[in-house]
Amino acid sequence: MQIDDFIEELKEKAEKRFDDFKIAEIESISSIKEDAYLEKPTWVGGDNKFVCLFVDLDKSSKISFKKHPVTMAKIYDYFTQTLVDVFNHESFCADYVDIKGDGAFAIYEGEHASYKAFYASITFRKIFEEKIKTKFQDDEGGNLSCKIGIHKDKILVKKIGKRGDYNEVWAGRLVNNAAKLSKQFQDAPEKFNGAKSPIIISEEVYKDFVAQPKFGLYNCHNGDTDILEQRNPVFIEVTDFSDDTLGDKFYYTQVGWCVHCADNYIDKLN
Ligand SMILES: [Zn+2]
User: What Å distances lie between residue 176 and 58, 71, 182, 231, CA to CA?
Assistant: First the structure.
């Protein structure tokens, strides 16, 4: 085919897709695999809200490993595979997982979506702080850190590619805003009172913890439930923030799993 004909054909195809553009209601994230039609210009979305956990290496670290591609590859291998393994934990398993750049994101659905994303983030953060960070500590004292953001919103997604070789494209704000939250730590570390790799959640996610505090709104005091009046909030509010779509506040925490009752929290998901 002549290149001119090829170009004309692609223009026509794109115009036809534009005219036929549709959005179909989505019930479950797993149906993306079948419903995000490859050839039809039909995107899946609707009013259901989903939760995205976005985790990424903090590239702003002044660390010399950037000069060594093999070291960098080892870090990615350690970091990204461990992250995906956490996303696939049997009790707080994600409903969709994808690798993106230096990190990965997971999408959760259902009544426990926010709590599952939170438990996965605490679990990964623990491994990161206790193992990954020290293992790849820079000789010159550079520190590795990671960015963690959790957001809840509607989705808009479609497969784009060719048969047998395609990617889901996330056009809605869910994934981008989870990534944007995670970046707050890199862009404005002064807002976090020296926290290390804090878990940053949007107001939309925070509301789910207010609605059901038993999933971790307050510290557990090692299971001591007698001092309800003195419960310490797990999430710290940051109001020095403004975003068209995320609002004027977010929350962060560096809470870890309680050695006494971590498994009790996870059991509540069942
Ligand atoms: Zn406890």
Answer: 16, 28, 10, 33
Task: Give me ligand 1 centre to Cα 16, in Å.
Answer: 58
100 SS3 class = strand
Q: What is the pLDDT of residues 58-79, one digit of tens each?
A: 865 555 556 678 877 888 888 9
Burial 102-113 (b: 16+ CB within 10 A, else e): bbbbbbbbeebb
Neighbours of ion ligand 1 (CB under 5 A): 220, 222-223, 258, 260-261
Phi-psi region of 120 (alpha: psi -120 to 50; beta: other; left: phi over 0): alpha
Ligand 1 centre to CA of 212 (Å) is: 17
Q: 137: burial class by Cβ within 10 Å (0-12, 13-18, 19+)?
A: middle
CATH 3.30.70.1230 applies to domain 3-267: yes
Q: What is the mean pLDDT of the chain?
A: 87
Cα 257 to chain centroid distance, Å, stands at 19
Tell me how far the alpha carbon of residue 265 lies from the centroid of ligand 1, in angstroms.
9
CA of 267 relative to ligand 1 center, distance in Å: 13
Q: What is the pTM of this model?
A: 0.90
What does the radius of gyration of the chain's CA atoms come to, in whole angstroms? 21
